[in-house]
Amino acid sequence: MSARYEIRFSGSGGQGMILAGIIMAEAAAIYGDKNAVQSQSYGPESRGGASKAEVIISSQPIDYPKATSIDCMLAMTQEACNKYHSDIKPGGILLVDSEEVKTLPQGDFRLISFPIIGTAREELGKTIVANIVSLGMITELTGIVSHEAVEKAVLARVPAAFMELNKKAVNIGFACAKALK
Amino acid sequence: MAEKRKKLLQGNEACVEGALYAGCMFYAGYPITPSTEIAEGLSVRLPQRGGKFIQMEDEIASIAAAIGGSMTGLKSLTATSGPGFSLKQEGLGYACIAEIPLVIVNVMRGGPSTGYPTGPSQSDIMQAKWGTHGDHPAIAVTPAYVQEILSETVRAFNLSEKYRTPVIVLYDEILGHMREPITIPDAGELPVVDRAKPTCPPEEYFPYDEKYEVPPLAPFGTGYRYHVTGLNHKKDGFPTNDSKQIRENNMRIMNKIENHKDEIWKNEEKFLDDAKIAVVTIGSTARSANFAVRVAREQGIKAGLLRPLTVWPFPDKAVKELSKRVRAIIVPELNLGQMVLEVERCAGGACAVEGIHRVDGEPINPAQILEVIKKYA
């Protein structure tokens, strides 16, 4: 792997983008054998507004905690997509939710538009786990951390009553992305 | 075992761990972004160990309560951000003159006033030294990594207990909110200092006895009765109008820090041995600088980093010495020029000094620093 692998999760406040970032960082640094740093940026609102979480993964110590040249970005809203996609590096990946992001940006990256929220709604009956579905998809698309590490990290972060739901969600994410490969 | 204790923690969560490790038993505060997670964490953890947590009506009351908590013998903490730090200046000065150990965390955000609550800033560097009126001692520690927020919070408590003075832990929103894997140290791994208590009987006790550089502090409620005031005072704590006593009082609280700067200073140096260009910076900006210096070295440029972990008292000696052997010192900081003034003062024209400043709520990135390094290469 290159010195820094950068992932940006973006959407609207309340969609669980920061949680997805935390879980990805834990999968890499606690349940995996890499270094990871997670940072975030959000507005003063607790719901709404563009929000992003960034995860830097490396086999080396990480100094600068913010993304500068993004390997993979997720956008769960049009606003976040517009605001944050310009830092994707040439040949990187942009995964967007197809219901939310209608105007697709052009650029030198692989664009994947997929009904992430729709999948959470139809397959699991709960759109609240769309962030976990997306986490599964990004894991599969990037191959930067193992399925096992991500699943462990997800289960360690969710309340006992929602373990099954989240386990299903992350596995649906793996499968959906595998079909796209 | 060590692997088992590795956790992904937020900077503010690491501050909580540091406070608990140091033996903090009292927290009084008023929540404010981006420091709130410290209050949140301690509200859960302090009662679990028999400590006390109180949310006061505002920041002034919070620091006053923390001073009171400390006077009963409990290690006390209050945490805030810029707007709250402004309010706490009154209590900070009181703790300086009354010589009350206390730790104040300021997680810096954009200002002035309520400014930019969720954005990073380093614009309270001067406030940490000069925010409260009158000549007074100031100690401020400046961690740059989540693990270091834990250890520097412990060091802040230690310094505050040792020198009977308030100590400020100064870091920014990026560090407060970012998560990194850290290891919680075992008991005994880091030193923990407790304040000196009197060994004499209560009737012979003077809280400001000038025969000591740092007089022992008796906890209230243990039979030692004494007076505490924000007025210049005599050794028994009662106010004085005697010019000799006023001078002695003022000089002792300054000198107890001034005479021990060598023990309070702490710097990290990287690639400085043969450096021709040095970057001097703190906190999250030092992380960008570290990145930039590494890239510069890869390109054959002799750049190095001096990172103060104690910004107050300012590391005069290290910067002065550095200025005599480099071509230029670059000072990136998330403000419009504060630390750069101290560096200029220390350099005294011995080398070029150039600041990099940013106040748009975004961090100074490694590329910005590298560009200026190249200018002097």
CATH domain topology of chain A: Pyruvate-ferredoxin Oxidoreductase, domain 3
Strand content of chain B: 15-25%
Mean pLDDT of chain B: 97
Fraction of helical residues of chain B: 25-40%
Q: Report, as a whole number of angstroms, the end-to-end distance of chain A.
A: 20 Å
The CATH class label of chain A is Alpha Beta
Q: What assembly state would you assign to the polypeptide chains in this entry?
A: heterodimer
Here the CATH topology of the largest domain in chain B equals Rossmann fold
- Counting structural domains of chain B, the number is 2
Number of continuous helical runs of chain B: 13
Strand count, sense and barrel status of the largest sheet of chain A are: 6 strands, mixed
If you average the pLDDT of chain A, what whole number results? Answer: 94
Any low-confidence stretches of chain A, pLDDT <50, length ≥5?
A: none
Structural class category of chain A: alpha/beta
Q: Could you give the distance between the termini of chain B?
A: 46 Å
What is the structural class of chain B?
alpha/beta
- Fraction in helix of chain A: 25-40%
Strand content of chain A: 25-35%
Task: Describe it.
The complex is a heterodimer of chains A (about 180) and B (about 375). With about 180 residues, chain A is α/β, with parallel strands linked by helices. Helix content of chain A is about 40%, strand content about 25%. In chain A, strands 2-3-1-4-5-6 form a 6-stranded mixed β-sheet, with helices on both faces. In chain A, helix 2 links the parallel strand 4 (about 70-75) and strand 5 (about 90-95). The mean pLDDT of chain A is about 95. The model of chain B has no long low-confidence stretch (mean pLDDT about 95). Chain B has 2 domains: about 5-185, Rossmann fold (3-Layer(aba) Sandwich), CATH 3.40.50; about 265-375, Rossmann fold, CATH 3.40.50.920. The longest helix of chain B is centred in the middle third of the chain and has 18 residues, at about 145-165. Chain B is of the alpha/beta class and about 375 residues long. Chain B has 13 helices and 15 strands. In chain B, strands 2, 3, 4, 5, 6, 7, 8 and 13 form an 8-stranded mixed β-sheet that branches. A 5-stranded mixed β-sheet of chain B has the order 10-12-11-14-15, with helices on both faces. A two-stranded antiparallel sheet of chain B has the order 1-9. The interface of A and B includes residues 29 and 66 of A.
